[in-house]
Amino acid sequence: MTIKSFIKECQEKDVLKLISIYLVSTWVLLQVMAVIWEPIGLPKKSVTILILLLIIAFPFYLYYIYIYKIHTDFDQEQTHQEASINASFKKMYFSAISIFAVVCAFATLFITKANFFNGPDSDSSTPQMVGSPPVIEASDKIAVLKFGNNTANESMDVVGKMAADWIFHGINEKKAGQVISTESILQYSKDFGVGEGKNELEILNAYLKPSKIIIGNYFVDGNQLVLQSSIIDGKTTEVLISFKPQYCDQENPLDCIDNVKQLIMSYIFLKDKDEALSLQLSPPKFSSYEALLEAKTKSDDPVVHLNLLNKSISLDSTFFEPQVLRVAHYYGMGNYKKADSLRKLIKPTNYSNKRQANLLKHYEALIKGRNDQIYSTIIEEYNYTPNDLMTNSGAMTVAQQYVNSPSDVGPMFSQISMAGVNLENCSICVIRYYVNSIAMIELGQYQSVIDTLQPIQDKLGSTWLAKSLISAYVRSGQMSEVREILDHREITADVENLAALHLFAGEEALLVGDSAFAKANFSKTQELSRTSENSNVLEATYFLGDYPKALKIAQSLLKESPMDKLLLSIEAITLAKTGQLPAATKVLVQMESLKRDYDYGATDYHLARFYAATGDDNKALDFLLKSIAAGNIYTSRSFQNDPHFNSLTHTPKFKKIMTYWH
């Protein structure tokens, strides 16, 4: 009989059905036992014993099936051929029972050995000798021992006790772990009579088994008290970390003790981080670490965020992370000079730490406008912590805006799930959606942008997300949907924001060659603005081709902002368009004279716009190349998204500009 025919015969005789009933019943029984063993007072091993019984019973159950189900069928009157088939089936069936019996025997031996024959430490319920201390399983508890007095002055014993108590209470207060105090160790040895001839470490190692033990000592050096501390492994007693000695006046030992407590608590809080993720070898003071954590949660408020970073640095000037975040803050605010000066003040606390070196290189690249290095260093940081919201969002932004690699953005965005996130309370999450939508637009995935943003845009009322939706609708030819968004915004949005959205819609329409739709939106921008002299009205008037009026507005606005490059470029273009080329040239010279450090190609970009608007394509492309090489970035309104360069986007040189940092 073949295996196939044997299985078929088992199915016909309901063998498989009966086995299924056994397995399902077994599973249900185990689930019930796992829930009720403790409430009804059964031993902890009850579930294990039940598993063993059910495994042992399985071969007997198979034999039962044969005797009471299959064998009775064979008692019927049979032909010679049927008898032969049944004999073959019987032989194969009992062979299967034998195989299952062997497997069950091995499983029984393995489970029994693992749970009942691993020595006294395998079960906390193992009987103990009367009066002997219970052996506690190794745990994640932390023991704090009294610090040793090496001063030869018994009156200073109190310092050791004070240090242990201070650390114990600090860990407890911040819930950094379960702590075993010196008093607990002494009480333990007293109650069970194991103190004689045994020191604290021996008691801990033999009975209480903490995962970490905090030890220390102190001595006098001149007029100063020197406090040394370490954390050792509770199992091996190997030193996990030795902290820097703390010095203080003999009369104020609490200064040393508090510093030691801060270092120990930071280590405990940070101990579970992968070594590669650590930004410095020695932990910062815990109060400094707390201020940093709070600063990260207050990133939406620049003033509070900066104050907390400064607080963290003032509490521990060696703490590396808040220093680099402070550089990032000033860079993000556009104060590049301040960011650069603060960057130069940062000294690595560990020259072998790759993350410290990478972050310093990253901010140096930002200040210098080296977009390729900015990307390579942010990707290295992203690879360390891809699920960190700030790092992930930063990598998305750099990929899209600094090096124009929109295809890299989607995988980064998908790395962190947005399911269940309250977007109304997460501004950085909105930015992530925005950057991802820009990338999808650059890739031509307009419907994906619409499907992603439409459900959340109305709820959030974000101008950024509205712009992305408008861009996706315009570029996919759905102008009626754009009108619907703008009509809805007319009810809910601020007038100037609405005017800016109409201006953006008009520029998007110019990119796809729909001049009628563009004109309608530029006219609406003029109509909505409260004043006839603001940047929205200026750009709308300029794009409508009313150069004399645009010139007048630009010159009026320049009286208040004489160094504004956008205003200067429009002034120069409108002068040239109204036949005043010498005056336009003079403005260009003025623009170039205003170029300063940390310009990042802004001046060159506006010069490129002038030459594109006045028909000198070669000069326009030259200045665009200089602009991107100086560290300019690709945005939703620049380079390929600027109507000034419509006629240039398909040229080889423009494509080179778009891939300059690849």
What is the CATH C-level name of the domain at 142-272?
A: Alpha Beta
CATH homologous superfamily descriptor of the domain at 142-272: TolB, N-terminal domain
The count of β-strands is 7
Task: Determine the number of helices (DSSP H or I, runs of at least 4 residues).
Answer: 29
Percent of residues in β-strands: 5-15%
What is the residue-averaged pLDDT? 84
Overall 3D shape: flat
CATH fold category name of the domain at 142-272: Rossmann fold
- Helix percent reads 55-70%
What does this structure look like?
Helix 13 runs antiparallel to helix 14 (371-384). The longest helix is centred in the first third of the chain and has 37 residues, at 80-116. Strand 5 (224-233) and strand 6 (239-242) form a beta hairpin. It is flat, with a radius of gyration of 38 Å. It is 63% helix and 5% strand. It starts with a helix and ends with a helix. The chain has 29 helices and 7 strands. Residues 118-138 have low confidence and may be disordered. By secondary structure, the protein is mainly alpha-helical. It has helices at residues 3-12, 15-36, 46-74, 80-116, 157-173, 182-192, 200-208, 253-270, 286-297, 302-315, 320-332, 336-345, 354-368, 371-384, 389-402, 409-415, 427-442, 446-460, 463-475, 479-492, 495-511, 515-528, 535-543, 547-558, 565-577, 581-593, 602-613, 617-629, 652-658; strands at 142-144, 148-149, 179-180, 212-221, 224-233, 239-242, 246-249. Strands 1, 2, 3, 4, 5, 6 and 7 form a 7-stranded mixed beta sheet that branches. Among the domains are: 3-122, no CATH class; 142-272, 3-Layer(aba) Sandwich (Rossmann fold); 286-365, Serine Threonine Protein Phosphatase 5, Tetratricopeptide repeat (Alpha Horseshoe), CATH 1.25.40.
